[in-house]
Amino acid sequence: MQPDATVTDLVDQIQSVLHIPVENQKLMVPKMALLKAPFGDRPITDLQHKKITLLGTTSAEIAGLTAASEKATAREAHLASARRNLPTAFSRRDPLRAQEESQYTFMTLRPLPNLPRPERSLAFLERLKADPGIRAAMRKHKFSVGLLTEMDPISYTESNHEGTTRILGLNRNKGEVIELRLRTDAYDGYRDYKTIRNTLCHELAHNVHGPHDRQFWDLCHQIEREVAKADWKSGGSSVGGGEFYEPSEEIAYDHGGWTGGEFVLGGGGGPSSQSADAAAGTTLSRREIIAKAAEERLKKQKEKQPDP
């Protein structure tokens, strides 16, 4: 770039070379605010000798996702038409149940367009939405989720001498958004369907209870049992024929809730809460103990970090 160039000149060049529209570009620069459109006339010299991380989606990827969404919409319209044409004896349906299923569901499904084959992730999310067990549980508990989306595998992953902790799910604002880690770390495969479905049950329980206390775990296990009982399809087929990854028990299920723009770890992980559980005569499962331990590690790491 020429010395008198601006950041706008830079993003124009990125658009020309990488085919990422300017409006889809975001630049992350250390010790600077996130740069996004409109970029203005900031001199390029402000970025000299600094590492620049580009976040963006190419026009081809956007077109691919749009085509996949249109295909899914067309498929749903075709199925709806087929249902309308069924004989009367087979088309009778409780109108109240139909209304509840349209209300207590996932309003929007969204894969990450910057990851490979977003249409496969969309199919995975559609399978979760259509799962008979999930539909029955959401209808019973009157759960309505604004957005169900996938989590980037590189996000919420921490490694230390004790191993690697991967957050499998995230619930923001009690059901406004639920994120699920669908893919393996290599991005080329998808995790076991029933493991992801159990993670979704866990995140749905956060619609009611934030902290990982006894009430939360009772509701979480109740939803899991209800989903398994109502799963008349008995598993179905795998998404895209890809290999699946069965996570170990050393993976935390979620990162608690999302309040006021900051992550808030789920409760129930401190010594006082453990004493309360013991006093109440309750017994935590191995998975619950592991989740609590993961929260404690994250809390201690945050406390050790110096104030800016």
UniProtKB/TrEMBL annotation:
- Positions with biased composition (Low complexity): 272-281
Single GO term (MF): proteasome binding
InterPro entries linked: WLM_dom
Task: List residues of the WLM domain.
Answer: 97-299
One of this protein's Pfam families, by short name? WLM
Which residue ranges traverse the bilayer? none
Which parts of the sequence are annotated with region: Disordered? 263-284
> What is this protein identified as?
WLM domain-containing protein
